[in-house]
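Record now logged for everyone:
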Amino acid sequence: MQVENAVMAFAGLMIMASVALAHFVSPWFLLLTVFVGANLFQTAFTGFCPAAIILKKLGLKAGSVFR
């Protein structure tokens, strides 16, 4: 799996988890959804993604977007 695919999978997982937690535990977990969305938005413009850096250090192959 390449870093870009792993970042998108991780972001999707975090969004689904935060929505489930907001439904079952507390609506404050929607702030996690906002954080993930804001991070994806800034990554689109800057190319800087903290999750991609961590995943590269864990050994995933870098593709063409996050270098």
